[in-house]
Every structure is written in structure tokens, then in C-alpha cells.
Specification:
The protein is of the alpha/beta class. The chain has one domain. The protein contains three helices and ten strands. The chain has an eight-stranded mixed sheet with strand order 1-3-5-6-7-8-9-10, with helices on one face. A two-stranded parallel sheet has the order 2-4. A hairpin with a 4-residue loop joins strand 8 and strand 9. The termini are far apart.
Length: 179
């Protein structure tokens, strides 16, 4: 899996790559001190992820997740790439007001994606977050709920760049449009 990352360099090629794919009974991964790149795909029972001080890049793919796994708080990769369904991505798009915020806000760069299943478009919906300097971008409207309904009101096809001050302003504008 050689995904291009922002730098144009292969994202998951380098020293120590560990793919963990479709391990339904796996509950713990720990104490891999030199591991730099980790990919976890469809491991729904995984509860513990710890002991990864060298982890730089972490990719997590699971379209059945309803919430982000709690173990994200125990790892500190530089980059997280998440692929999930639209309902979870909608929660994540709420930023600081999301119940998911504390699970990923400590990570320097997060890119989260969801597919548009109706149109068969991969990674159509996204959230891109950088902790320092703060940046939060999404093409999911802040008025969205977590139902996953893909309506024009809920999901936008244009990029919204949202700063801390713009989040509240956008919320007020959406409320005024609804009235």
C-alpha cells in the first residue's frame, strides 16, 4: 500500500511497516518500540494499543466503527489517516464540540475520509485537522447530524476552511438560514 502523502513521498513505505488486517479476535497490540508506521484495517475487537514511542504514521480503516476507538488517546503518531463511514465522519467534523475530539486532538495531523456509496466516489467527504498551527477543514456542514443522511443540506461539495472564530459564526449563519 503506497499511498501518496502531502509531501509526495510514499506514505507507508519506510522503516518498520506493520499492517494488521481483518483480525476479528485481536484485542491488544503493544510494546513495538521501534515501529514507525502502522496500518489497522477492520479489527473491531482491538481495545488496547500501547507502547509505540516511535510511531510516526498510523492508518485506521473500519467502516463499521460508530465511534473512534479509545486507544487513540494512548498513541501519539505525527500523522493519522482514518477511513470510516459518513456518520462517524460527521461527528468528527464537529471539531471541539464533538465527543470524539479528545481522542484525536493531540495528534499533529489528522486526515479522515468517508466514501459516497450512492455515487461510488471514494473519499468524497473529509475532515483535515492540524494541531499547530491550528487548521480544521471539512466539506461536511456543521449543521449535519450523525444520521449519515447525504443531503445537500448536510454535505457540501466545496471546501470549508474553519478557524476557531469561524466555527461559531458558521453555526449562527446556518441557524439564520433555517429560520
Amino acid at each position: 500500500m503506497a499511498e501518496e502523502f502531502e509531501t509526495g513521498k510514499p506514505w507507508l513505505i519506510g522503516t518498520a511497516l506493520a499492517p494488521v488486517i481483518k483480525c476479528p479476535g485481536l484485542e491488544r497490540i503493544s510494546n513495538l518500540a521501534n515501529l514507525q508506521n502502522l496500518v489497522i484495517m477492520r479489527c473491531p475487537e482491538l481495545k488496547v494499543l500501547e507502547g509505540f514511542p516511535a510511531l510516526q504514521r498510523f492508518a485506521l480503516e473500519d467502516y463499521d466503527m460508530k465511534t473512534l476507538p479509545g486507544y487513540l488517546q494512548n498513541v501519539n503518531p505525527r500523522d493519522l489517516r482514518l477511513e470510516c463511514d459518513i456518520s462517524l465522519l460527521t461527528f468528527i467534523a464537529r471539531g471541539k464540540s464533538s465527543p470524539e475530539w479528545d481522542k484525536f486532538s493531540h495528534i499533529k495531523q489528522v486526515k479522515a475520509y468517508a466514501d459516497d456509496l450512492d455515487s461510488h466516489i471514494e473519499r468524497k467527504w473529509y475532515v483535515k485537522y492540524t494541531s499547530d498551527p491550528f487548521s480544521f477543514k471539512t466539506n461536511i456542514s456543521l449543521s449535519a447530524d450523525a444520521s449519515g443522511d447525504e443531503t445537500e443540506e448536510v454535505l457540501l461539495d466545496v471546501v470549508e476552511e474553519i478557524s476557531r472564530d469561524e466555527i461559531e459564526e458558521e453555526r449562527v449563519n446556518v441557524e439564520q438560514l433555517r429560520e
